[in-house]
Design a protein that fits this description.
Layout (H helix, E strand, L loop, with lengths): L1 H31 L4 H26 L3 H26 L6 H25 L1 E2 L1 H24 L1 H14 L10 H33 L3 H13 L1 H12 L3 H26 L2 E2 L13 H24 L4 H20 L1
Antiparallel strand pairs: 1-2
Length: about 325
């Protein structure tokens, strides 16, 4: 069992490094076209940091491991919101522009409501559900780019003012070919890391006697969310709070429409029933996983939309929710 554990850890490392290089390349390329920071966070960076989830869930779907394909996406949303955002908020609360959050937050809840209706009413996801989710992803990207072009003049004015105030923080532009190389190598590392994570995570789960869905909702979800954690910490340290917040919200949306959409389209699956709610025969996903996902996003998103800023109490409450969630998964 030592070899699977070592390969599992190696998969984590490759995912982290691959995601890091992919994000660097994507952000540098996006900056060349003068895209605003929050858009970069909610689109380009979010796609990059969500690639591990895409690869893990898609690989699991190909191999017929529905519990991993499903649990990784839902678990990553919970991890992104109740752990990663919670930690950054508890350390350094930040402000946020309401209008820039309305599109990603609104899109997330539209996609989540659709996803939940299918889950609760049908108990399984057909291929057309995956196609609809992928269409939602395409529509969101189109609207985001269109909105950015529409507000381009305003964004450029803000960028010029920021440059005049802090000219010493202007980043040196890298070579385009180097950014493309980072994208390609990063994507390759993510693919290999995802394969190692899924294969060996399943072996470890079987050896420990832990349901595959629990491993996917916790350990694998945490592993594939590490790029978001690294991005969040780095963004806050450099004062790019909009990038950090946009990344988490965008990544959560992409976990629903892109990660789940890809996995379901590749191989439709039912809601996992490995773990039931206190032996009632009801899938714990209906009673715990999905409600925790929605509640966490409400706690994260409502204050900045209503008040225009984030609070330390949000981080504390979300951390308590995450700890309680993990205790339920492993101890109950």
């Amino acid at each position: 069992m030592i070899v699977p554990i070592l390969l599992f850890i190696l998969g984590f490392v490759l995912l982290i490094k691959g995601g890091d290089w992919f994000v660097d390349g994507a952000v540098n390329i996006a900056h060349r076209f003068h895209l605003p920071e929050l858009l970069i966070g909610a689109t380009v960076v979010s796609i990059g940091t969500t690639l591990p989830e895409v690869m893990v869930s898609s690989t699991a779907a190909f191999q017929g491991q529905a519990e991993t394909a499903y649990g990784n996406a839902i678990g990553s949303v919970i991890c992104n919101t109740a752990l990663i955002s919670a930690l950054t908020l508890a350390i350094r609360p930040t402000t946020a522009k309401r209008k820039t959050l309305l599109l990603p937050v609104g899109s997330f809840f539209v996609a989540a409501i659709f996803y939940c209706l299918i889950a609760y009413l049908m108990g399984e996801f057909n291929r057309w559900t995956g196609i609809v989710l992928l269409v939602m992803f395409a529509v969101y990207m189109f609207i985001s780019i269109k909105t950015t072009i529409k507000n381009k003049d305003e964004d450029e004015v803000e960028e010029v003012e920021a440059t005049e105030e802090e000219p010493e923080k202007k980043k040196k532009e890298t070579k385009l070919w180097l950014d493309i190389v980072l994208l390609v190598i990063g994507a390759a590392l993510i693919a290999v890391g995802a394969k190692l994570l899924v294969d060996n995570g399943t072996k470890i789960a079987e050896w420990l006697g832990v349901p595959e869905s629990v491993i996917a909702l916790t350990f694998i979800a945490l592993g594939t969310s590490l790029p978001e954690l690294v991005t969040a910490i780095t963004s806050l340290a450099k004062g790019h709070s909009s990038l950090s917040l946009g990344n988490v919200i965008g990544a959560n949306l992409f976990n629903i429409v892109l990660v789940c959409g890809m996995a379901i389209t590749i191989r439709p699956f039912s809601i996992p029933v490995e773990k039931t709610f206190f032996d009632t025969g009801i899938s714990s996903s209906f009673v715990v996983d999905i409600p925790v996902m929605l509640l966490s996003m409400l706690i994260l998103a409502l204050p900045p939309i209503i008040k225009g800023k984030m609070y330390r109490w949000q981080g504390i409450v979300l951390l308590v929710i995450y700890v309680a969630y993990c205790i339920f998964q492993f101890a109950l």
